[in-house]
Design brief:
Blueprint (H helix, E strand, L loop, with lengths): L5 E4 L9 H14 L5 E5 L3 H16 L3 E4 L2 H11 L23 E4 L5 E6 L3 E6 L6 E4 L7 H11 L4 E5 L6 H10 L7 E5 L19 H6 L4 H11 L1
Parallel strand pairs: 1-2, 8-9
Antiparallel strand pairs: 3-4, 4-7, 5-6
C-alpha cells in the first residue's frame, strides 16, 4: 500500500506501565524482525502530553468536557435499574452540575446516535456513540484514556490505516466522532481482525499468564515457527 509503520508505545496508564515492559516489547519486536519506519514514540513524551492538553483545552472551549461522578454512581444506578447505564451522559447528570476538574474523571459529551464506517475486513459497520455513557478522557487516577489518546495521536501522526483486534470494534464510533471534534475531517481506515482466543472463548491476556512471544522464545522456538503458530491459529 506504500504506507509506513509507526511504532507507538501506548503508556498512558502510569499505574500499570513499567520501563521493563517497554523494553520487553522492543526486544520481542527486534527478535521477530519487525522494524518500524517511524518510532518508537511514547504517550508519556512531553510533546505528546502537551498535545493531549491542547486537545482537551479545545474540547473545553467547545463546552463538551465535564467532570464525572464516581464509578459507584454507575454501580448504584445499574443495581436499581437492573441493567448497566447506556446512552450519552451519566447517571448523576454531571454535565449540568459543573463539577469541574475536582471530579474523579473527565468525560466529553459527543452526542447521541451512531457512526458508520466501511471496515476493511468486516465491510459496512455501525455502532452507537455512547454505549455506556459519554467517553472518558481522563480517568480517576489522572491518566489520559486510550480512547482519547489514540484519536489525538492518530491525527498528529497522520495515521491513515488502523489495524487492530475486533475487541476494539465497539470503541470505533466514539473515536470517529471525537476525531471530528479535535479537527480531523475524515477518520482513518479501520480493519478489525479476529482474535486468537482460549478454548473457552475468552481473550488471551498476559495478566492471566497466557503464553506470549517471550515464553515461546524461552521454549526454543525461532521467529519462523512463531509466525507459523500464529498463522495456524488465525
Amino acid at each position: 500500500m506504500g504506507g509506513r509503520v509507526l511504532l507507538r508505545i501506548e503508556d498512558h496508564d502510569r499505574q500499570r506501565c513499567r520501563p521493563e515492559y517497554d523494553a520487553a516489547v522492543l526486544e520481542d519486536l527486534d527478535w521477530l524482525g519487525f522494524v518500524p519506519d517511524v518510532g518508537p514514540v511514547r504517550q508519556t513524551d512531553p510533546d505528546t502530553v502537551s498535545a493531549f492538553e491542547a486537545a482537551l483545552a479545545g474540547l473545553r472551549a467547545r463546552g463538551v468536557v465535564y467532570g464525572d461522578c464516581a464509578r459507584s454512581t454507575f454501580t448504584a444506578w445499574a443495581r436499581s435499574a437492573g441493567r448497566p447505564w447506556s446512552g450519552p451522559g451519566c447517571p448523576g447528570s454531571c454535565r449540568s452540575r459543573g463539577l469541574g476538574d475536582a471530579a474523579p474523571t473527565l468525560r466529553v459529551a459527543l452526542g447521541d446516535g451512531a457512526e458508520s464506517w466501511n471496515d476493511a475486513l468486516l465491510g459496512p459497520s455501525e455502532g452507537p456513540i455512547a454505549p455506556a455513557g459519554d467517553l472518558v478522557v481522563r480517568d480517576r487516577h489522572g491518566n489520559w484514556t486510550y480512547g482519547f489518546c489514540v484519536v489525538v495521536d492518530d491525527l498528529r501522526h497522520g495515521i491513515g490505516l488502523v489495524v487492530r483486534g475486533r475487541d476494539l470494534l465497539p470503541a470505533t464510533p466514539a473515536q470517529i466522532r471525537l476525531g471530528r471534534h479535535v479537527g480531523r475531517d475524515a477518520p482513518p481506515a479501520f480493519l478489525h481482525h479476529p482474535l486468537i482466543r482460549r478454548p473457552d472463548g475468552s481473550k488471551l491476556s498476559k495478566s492471566s499468564a497466557d503464553t506470549g512471544v517471550r515464553e515461546l522464545r524461552a521454549a526454543g522456538h525461532d521467529p519462523v515457527e512463531v509466525f507459523a503458530l500464529v498463522a495456524a491459529r488465525g
